[in-house]
Design a protein that fits this description.
This is Ammonium transporter. It comes from Sphingobacterium griseoflavum. Helix 8 (199-217) packs across helix 14 (383-413) and helix 9 (230-249) runs antiparallel to helix 10. The chain is 66% helix and 3% strand. The protein is mainly alpha-helical. It has a two-stranded parallel ribbon with strand order 1-4. Strands 2-3 form a two-stranded antiparallel sheet.
Length: 436
């Protein structure tokens, strides 16, 4: 038995010891609590829908890779539901939503080991649902974000190194971005940046980390790319689209008019993007494909995520179409540049997130959501657009260069790439002793 074999299980032993030392049995009682059963019921459902997105992503990515890497690719998504949950419960939620430290991170002791989750306490911005539910809802966002990155280094990363990288990513990149954007005292929140459900926090951070990963790990030895199961891709798209209603409509914080509006804009943007991808392919002389329709639908979902609760339904139509065309063009650019982002995570999630973020600042209007204090550029006001431009540059640089640093640190702790022999054999067999 080696130290490398002992450390993974040893971390679970430490978690057990921490749970014994900090059982978090204190009950918080708030006078005149406003917890609403309807809002609570919807958020319970929304949290479950968002969790479903991660298995959906596993099918989406798993169908795109070669047969010898399907299991490993799907497991890279699935395992996030285990590992990230443990981190979140111990101190991750505190880093993202704990007491503010400098506008960039939360105090890790605020909700350490889910302290304060019993009773009728609430998160200030969502006063009608228990804080424990808010913590679990936000957990699902933290789970899927590192899973999104996996498409960039699919078919060539060691599983143990991957676990180290996503641990570091959630702590060093995701949690600070979530705090800066969604905590009332966060630096981006104070700038007036609007991110309804994760365009900056989830998709831009994952997209830029994906580009950094593709550049750092380099190209696969075998450049052929034959999807193993397009039917998996279609199934995964359906699960993602279904789960995304929890992602976006759930971010309204309750069963209310805003949730209905976000539900509608999510539907419209995804549908428009799916058709835009197909029709743009036809315009380029290609045949319409199931893969194209699925990728387009997901790009539309990505792009509407930051805007879902801030823009009208007609404007969501524009966001979906524009995002699909731009992402389609970026896929072509990525291919010409020879960057081996295996499943085009940066062109679809990174670029889709950035397009959505900017178009939020173009089309946001206070008639949709009173949280919009400055209307978008389309309505003749410039402050929101300027704030989003600044935030886009800052968040992009933080995610990209931060990911490069974490990749280097991970590589020093455990080599990231599998050997050429293992890569040719396939990760299912070489990393997991399993095969389809």
């Amino acid at each position: 038995m080696t130290i490398k074999q002992i450390i993974p299980f040893g971390t679970l032993v430490i978690a057990v010891i921490l749970a014994i030392l900090a059982p978090s049995t204190e009950v918080t009682t708030v006078v005149d609590s406003n917890i609403d059963t309807g809002d609570t019921a919807w958020l319970l459902m929304a949290a479950a829908l968002v969790l479903l997105m991660t298995p959906g992503l596993a099918f989406f990515y798993g169908g795109m890779v070669r047969k010898k890497n399907v299991i490993s690719t799907m497991l890279q998504s699935f395992v996030c539901m285990g590992l990230i949950t443990i981190i979140w419960v111990v101190f991750g939620f505190s880093l993202a939503f704990g007491d503010d430290i400098g506008g960039i991170i939360g105090d890790p002791s605020t909700f350490y080991m889910m302290k304060g989750m019993l009773g009728n306490a609430t998160w200030p911005a969502l006063p009608t649902i228990p804080i424990a539910l808010f913590a679990m809802f936000q957990l699902k966002f933290a789970v899927i974000t590192p899973a999104l990155i996996t498409g960039a280094f699919a078919e060539r990363i060691k599983f143990n190194a991957y676990l180290i990288f996503i641990t570091l990513f959630v702590i060093v990149i995701y949690a600070p971005l979530a705090h800066a954007t969604w905590h009332p005292e966060g630096i981006l929140a104070k700038m007036g940046v609007l991110d309804f459900a994760g365009g900056t926090v989830v998709h831009m951070s994952a997209g830029w980390a994906a580009l950094a990963s593709a550049l750092y790990l380099g190209k696969r030895k075998e450049q052929e790319h034959t999807p193993s199961r397009i039917s998996y891709v279609i199934l995964g798209t359906g699960l993602l689209w279904f789960g995304w209603f929890g992602f976006n409509a759930g971010s309204a914080g309750g069963a209310n008019e805003l949730a209905a509006s976000a539900f509608a804009t999510t539907t419209t943007a995804s549908a428009a993007a799916a058709m835009a991808w197909i029709f743009f392919d036809i315009l380029k002389g290609k045949k319409p494909s199931a893969m194209g329709a699925c990728i387009g639908a997901v790009v539309g979902l990505v792009a509407i995520t930051p805007a879902a609760g801030f823009v009208t339904i007609p404007h969501s139509l524009i966001i979906g179409i524009v995002a699909a065309v731009i992402s389609n063009i970026l896929v072509i650019w990525r291919t010409k540049k020879g960057i081996d982002d295996t499943l085009d995570v940066f062109p679809c999630h990174g670029v889709g997130g950035m397009v959505g973020m900017l178009l939020t600042s173009v089309f946001a209007h206070s008639s949709v959501n009173s949280a919009v204090t400055t209307n978008g550029l389309f309505f003749g006001e410039t402050n929101l657009f300027t704030a989003h431009l600044i935030a886009l540059v800052g968040a992009s640089a933080f995610a990209f260069f931060g990911a490069l640093l974490l990749l280097k640190v991970t590589d020093m702790l455990a080599p990231l790439r599998v050997s050429e022999k293992d890569e040719v054999l396939g990760l299912d067999a070489s990393q997991h002793d399993e095969e389809l």
